[in-house]
């Protein structure tokens, strides 16, 4: 585990998700992420790590790095059951008790990718530091007023 002030850090995935949330929160806040966007990233990382505990027998780690524009977090599992197509999972609907993790991560983060590699798979979560999504879904921006049909 690397200390604060570094441009990257790594933590083990254990059943102490509270500690992991604290590490990610502190790391991302130090990088400049704040408010709801910080909370969203922390929640998404928690969900991904919980999936490693549930589906990969807890064998994995979390690595984070930052640059001038974003914080990226890799949640790696050594079971390797995820494939890139899983990142495109649709809304599971209200009638399912489980299966919302990747969908939720996509709602919370600017970018979600799954990468398969020798010895496992990784979920990459990226959040822009300054509130502007790296890959905006709606390039035209939000609705502008009461006459806008999207309201």
Kindly state the mean pLDDT as a whole number? 79
Relative strand content: 15-25%
| Cα gyration radius (Å) | 16 Å
Main β-sheet, in a few words?
5 strands, antiparallel
Task: Assign a percent range to the helix content.
Answer: 25-40%
Strand count: 5
Counted by DSSP, the helix tally is 3
- SSE pattern, N- to C-terminal: EHHEEHEE
Query: Ranges with pLDDT <50 over ≥5 residues?
Result: 1-6, 135-151
Distance between the termini: 47 Å
Tell me, what's the shape? Answer: globular
Give an overview in words.
This protein has 151 residues and is an alpha+beta fold. It is built from three helices and five strands, in the order βααββαββ. It has a five-stranded antiparallel β-sheet with strand order 1-2-3-5-4, covered by helices on one side. The longest helix is centred in the N-terminal third of the chain and has 21 residues, at 35-55. The chain is globular. The chain starts with 7 loop residues before the first strand and ends in a 23-residue tail after the last strand.
